[in-house]
Specification:
With 209 residues, the chain is an alpha/beta fold. The strands form four sheets. A four-stranded parallel beta sheet has the order 3-6-7-11. A three-stranded mixed beta sheet has the order 8-10-9. A two-stranded antiparallel sheet has the order 1-2. The chain is globular, with a radius of gyration of 19 Å. About 5% of the residues have low confidence.
Length: 209
């Protein structure tokens, strides 16, 4: 161990969670899912990293359930046996596991370039262009915002029941929460738009839930 980094192998407390060292696997997409559920390959992929000595593994997880793509979803309860298998495997190897929760409303391949045939919801009406992702959006109704908050809460509760040690709310890289925070995307005139406090309301409701 280099003298410049004397603490990397020492225990670390992240909130109430005790980690055995300062090494962790950051969230990333892996094609080891089936219908939104973690597969056995996904379990073994994360187990190998825990056996390799990581103190914390963080999974990239989407909500609501997309039932396709590289990230599994912890929102449907029927997906929980796979998540429980991952948590048990990682814990058995001496590591902890968190779930990163996010809603990526403009997933690659979901919409045709510049399509306006079925606008997807967002804080406000806009056109969105990010590398290979292009879409037109419509403003979310308050009942849809409430349903999205509930989706985050349900996903977190399911992960807790499956034995996960924590969650991280993802609010960058163009996902829905970041768009509510950003005055570039959020042009609402109700309690979810305008001031910074209002633009933070959706995120705060998710965290409170």
């Amino acid at each position: 161990m280099h003298a410049k980094y004397p603490h990397v192998f020492s225990p670390f407390k992240l909130g109430p969670v005790e980690l055995k060292n300062r090494f962790y696997s950051s969230p990333h997409a892996m094609p080891f899912t089936g219908g939104g559920k973690p597969t056995d390959d996904y379990v073994h992929y994360n187990l190998a990293r825990a056996k390799g000595g990581l103190g914390l593994i963080m999974l990239s997880l989407t909500i609501p359930d997309r039932s396709k793509g590289a990230q599994p979803s912890p929102q449907p309860k029927e997906n929980m046996p796979g998540f429980r298998a991952i948590a048990d495997a990682v814990h058995g190897a001496g590591a902890k596991i968190f779930g990163e929760l996010f809603y990526q409303w403009c997933a690659p391949g979901t919409w045709q370039p510049m399509s306006t045939g079925a606008p997807i919801f967002a804080p406000s009406v806009s056109q969105y262009n990010f590398v290979d992702r292009r879409a037109a959006t419509r403003e979310m109704h308050k009942r849809e915002i409430g349903a999205m908050v509930k989706a985050f809460v349900d996903a977190a509760a399911n992960l807790r029941a499956a034995g996960f040690d924590g969650i991280m709310i993802h609010a960058s890289h163009g996902v829905l929460i970041e768009q509510f925070l950003s005055p570039y995307f959020n042009h609402r005139t109700d309690e979810y738009g305008g001031s910074l406090e209002n633009r933070m309301r959706f995120l705060r409701e998710v965290l409170a839930g």
